[in-house]
């Protein structure tokens, strides 16, 4: 009988006869992952065949209070908010207020782009498919770190100043700012804010009562997780990331219990409610969201035998072992999320963590292990593999940045004429940055992003290193000056020091030129 059972299991890769990982095994997997990664807390939920089969919290909400995470604990889901934005757009399409291929300028006349052709032909789907031609994370410095004063007007006029890195609609490069524009479009066409639209048209119908479209809407914070970081090697609490102009790119706070309803909605092609008797969005628009709009490179992988990869409307799409895979991750300082759905298996997995850096290793390894189990694949030891990778990556980054600051500490700055660097510098989209003296030291500060300020310490040649006041993420940077023929600085270029700096610190897109020429 054991031999026959093994044969049946090998033939039925979907696992409908073979027993899948039970809740105790999932507990063991998650607890083992938490022992390998420095993560304060996490929550994991699984839906299968229309039912919630696992829904649980692990660890603690805060290293200070030690309060435990449960299935209702709220986390920032970050970029997993993007799919809520595309559903909101779909609802407006079904109301006839917009069409997917409408030109953005027809709805937002002040919208700009880097050339006239792209500006005149940029459509609604271009806002949410990462194919604008602009580089990875372009302009994210307007909102990373939080606390800046940029407005939607600033955002809409900024794109004309960016330089494209590829031809329009030919290459995938992740973009947050254009999702904010999509949020503005939703507000203008619906007559309510993006936050209000998401709440009334999506969260309320699905009874996602403990999900909030913005941090400010959470009045009872007793079950809100704190944000943690491990970028210094030890775990610490960091402030919760403040809101952007709107939440369309990453503003939602939710929990795994509510997100089960969100996954079931998608796995049921927009249907919800008792006996699936209600329809939030049509099957036609669901197929539009789960259709590849931007082709991405496929990495050859004998384990999964994948043939295609791309981005839909708010979702990454690929195939694994002949099954469609729909997924998205999200990350903000101290908060990470991962949603994976396998519609052919009627399976959904969501993982939320309250610790950046190591949390990515946890949500990737646990999600992969669960999905592999349902695919009938062997144990690949994902947790150990990711732990080894993260350890190696951290060591490489730590060794490099440590060497930089050691060199800064011994650099001879006696020949540096600081007065040649002092002055006001301007970037067309980021605004003014000032270099100034104070008590014998040289500093740099941004006027519009006040957390980006710090002491400039000589490194080598015309390059200085700055340790920003902002330390919630590792964003310290090299600051290099271009000098004129008499040795006076005329331009500044900035580059992150850490090889693992988050792409949202797009210092490389700044072109800071001296304002005061005297």
Give an overview in words.
The chain is built from twelve helices and 22 strands. It has 518 residues and is an alpha+beta fold. An eight-stranded antiparallel beta sheet has the order 2-1-14-13-12-11-10-9, with helices on both faces. A hairpin with a 2-residue loop joins strand 11 (316-320) and strand 12. Helix 3 runs parallel beside helix 7 (177-190) and helix 3 crosses helix 8 (194-203). The longest helix has 29 residues, at 382-410.
Q: What radius of gyration results from the CA coordinates? A: 24 Å
Give the strand content.
Answer: 15-25%
Number of helices: 12
Mean pLDDT, as a whole number?
Answer: 93
Q: Strand pairing plus helix content: what structural class?
A: alpha+beta
Largest sheet geometry: 8 strands, antiparallel
Q: Which strand order do you get reading across the main beta sheet?
A: 2-1-14-13-12-11-10-9
Helix content: 25-40%
Q: State the shape.
A: globular
The low-confidence parts are 1-18
Number of DSSP-assigned strands: 22
Distance between the termini: 90 Å
Could you state the oligomeric state of the chains shown?
A: single chain
